[in-house]
Amino acid sequence: MRIRIAATLAAAAMLATQLGGCGKTIPGSAKAVGDIDAGTAAGIPIDNNKPSGPKQGVVDADFTVENADKGEMDRLAINALSDIYDYWAERMPADFEGQKFEPLKRLVSYDSNGTALKVCNATTAKSVNAFYCSLDDSVSWDRGVLLPMLDKQFGPMSVVAVLAHEMGHAVQFRLGKKSNIGQGTPTIVKEQQADCYAGAFFRHVAEGKAKHFEINVGKGLNQVLATMFFIRDPAGLSADKQGAHGLAFDRVFAFQAGFTEGPRRCAKMDPNEINGRIAEKERNNQDESTRGEADVTDKRIQGLLKKSLEEAFKRTGAAPPEIKDNGAKCADGASTPPATYCAAENVVAIDLKALEKIATPPKRGQEPGVDGNGIGDFAAFAEIASRYSLAIQKSVGVALEGETTGLRTACLTGAWAAFTVDKVPGDGDGGLHIAVGDLDEAVAELLQDSSLIAADIKGTQIPSGFARVEAFRVGYFDGDKGCATQF
Length: 487
Description:
Layout (H helix, E strand, L loop, with lengths): L15 H4 L20 E2 L2 E2 L7 E2 L17 H24 L10 E5 L7 E2 L2 E2 L6 E4 L4 E5 L3 H9 L1 H20 L11 H20 L6 E2 L4 H12 L17 H14 L1 H5 L3 H7 L7 H6 L8 H15 L8 E4 L13 E4 L4 E4 L1 H8 L17 H19 L7 H15 L20 H9 L18 H22 L1
Parallel strand pairs: 4-8, 10-12
Antiparallel strand pairs: 1-2, 3-9, 5-6, 7-8, 11-12
């Protein structure tokens, strides 16, 4: 988050009539379809006792793969591609006017640190990547570095997700105009569609229809969504640039759209939609030089955060809660560190040291929020904002406990986060500005088991990470109207 902004943050709350219609709707709304259920991922119940990963006792697929070494990573990749082939052999004719799915001409395994191959008129030397190439209709993957890295940090289903994305490009190539793809189609549209097609395949897996893999839609699917943070575009890369894939916030939406609505939804993605909803398209020199990170321990920053929250929620008429650094403790003993809403005192109590740890960005290649890694300043600010929103909820008389409260809290935190790029004042106005990459930090924090962003006053988090992100997105794009309608 940048120290620049704004009185243009969206005001938010549950009941639009009580807010006098405050809030801001951002064009290109990227909303969930239907009601958001705290206990499901798009209708599939959460069951964290269900395993995620390769099924046991299933015969491995037998595919012809160039340069395969018969190791564990190639075994994982080949079984994934087998299941993806099966999916598209069924869905392509069903969803696209009887069009037949044709297998790829080449599948190539390589080690980016090993003997170089020539694929797609390029060398695989030092190419830590997985990619589809339309020139020779191939999917290739780095079994030496990339796949082991993904497997170690996010589990085997992250490898499946990456290959499902690359196969999404093969699907585009086969569908052509049926998938809104032509020679001049911007890269970002192709990439968002491929994420969407990957999500559609994962719905198939979650429904128990895949031969080699299974996934629970709680923690298992959360790991797949967290992979999007790892493989997102660098903050500040314009969506208009050749090769742009989108930030994690954008990529997670595309994946969820496919998971929820299926392949035909993916094929409808076009430049108009993408341009309307892609988040954080621009950055300025100050954001770039500071990487958009603010010091949460700085008292001035804390004051600016409080001011932004007051501005965001002032039309509710609620008495602003005081924010105290006291170890996140309430006088009545209730505590939900690193931040707590003390309803009896109307205080948001925080543990600044714990928040500082969350606010420290992970180093490149590290998984956010795992093994002591932080996430970024916005993740810490959003924890505070979520507790602040409970004061607003109390003021309008809604329940502060339960799953609906958790969803509403995530929505209101998203509404607080909303901003308008072209109306951001200069540095001297004494406000805060959401920076490029902050929404990615929100996604990463929402998927943490301990996150408060989608939790009630007792810190009880809604079970579905999928639903947490959806609720936050409703608030971000639709402000108080979205929160009022949904929750």
